[in-house]
Amino acid sequence: MTHDYRHVALAVILCVAPSGAARGQGSHVAHSGEESRPQPVPPAPRLYVIGEHVIERERPAAPILVRPATLAAQIGELAGQTVRVPYSRVVGVFNPRVFVVDTASRLPALPGNRGRVLVFVDPGALRVADTMLVSSTVTVSGVARTLVGMQVTGEVAWPRELRPEVIERLEIRAAVLAASVQTAEGVELTSRQ
């Protein structure tokens, strides 16, 4: 009985072996006197771990399309990514390089549920008056940042008026380092300096 199982196992091995293996063409199943050479193995991808340095996330080729409230709610996942933020209604301007947006909609968000985003313009500054910009709907393109990250990097000066209690009262949850601010039809509202 044991003898029959060995024949079945050998038959299975021969059936599964690649073509030419039984004739000794580079396989270990049968030898024709030639020494078999191992097939080259592609190198395994290397993983580099760098101490405790911050490694910037890879950015996708196209910006992530996200509304202000969604960006504010998901800043932990989107921080460091290139984003395009349409339907951004300007609710306040601190200076020509810093303003606040929320999601433009027919019904305003209830207090406590606003997800506002602080926009820092770099390079350049806004080239329109505050009075013209407030209540306008714009599209912001740039890199999503956490509020702490924006303060620490210092890429654009943090306005003195933005103390922690003001940020909490205005319900600002995220920031964007904006390379471009445009109207719905694509008119650029920043000047390059």
Quaternary organization: single chain
Quickly count the domains: 2
CATH topology of the largest domain: OB fold (Dihydrolipoamide Acetyltransferase, E2P)
Q: Identify the CATH class of the largest domain.
A: Mainly Beta
Instruction: Provide the succession of SSEs.
Output: HEHHEEEEHEHHEE
Question: What does this entry look like structurally?
Answer:
The chain is α+β, with helices and mostly antiparallel strands. It folds into two domains: 1-31, no CATH class; 64-191, OB fold (Dihydrolipoamide Acetyltransferase, E2P) (Beta Barrel). Helices cover 22% and strands 27% of the residues. The strands form two sheets. It has a five-stranded mixed barrel. A two-stranded antiparallel ribbon has the order 5-8. The radius of gyration is 30 Å and the shape is globular. Mean pLDDT is 79; it is low at 7-32 and 41-49.
What's the structural blueprint in terms of helices and strands?
Elements: H1 2-16, E1 64-65, H2 68-73, H3 75-78, E2 82-95, E3 98-103, E4 116-121, E5 125-126, H4 130-133, E6 137-145, H5 147-153, H6 164-170, E7 172-183, E8 190-191
Parallel strand pairs: 1-2, 4-7
Antiparallel strand pairs: 2-3, 2-6, 3-4, 5-8, 6-7
Summarize this structure briefly:
With 193 residues, the protein is an alpha+beta fold. Helix content is 22%, strand content 27%. The chain has helices at 2-16, 68-73, 75-78, 130-133, 147-153, 164-170, and strands at residues 64-65, 82-95, 98-103, 116-121, 125-126, 137-145, 172-183, 190-191.
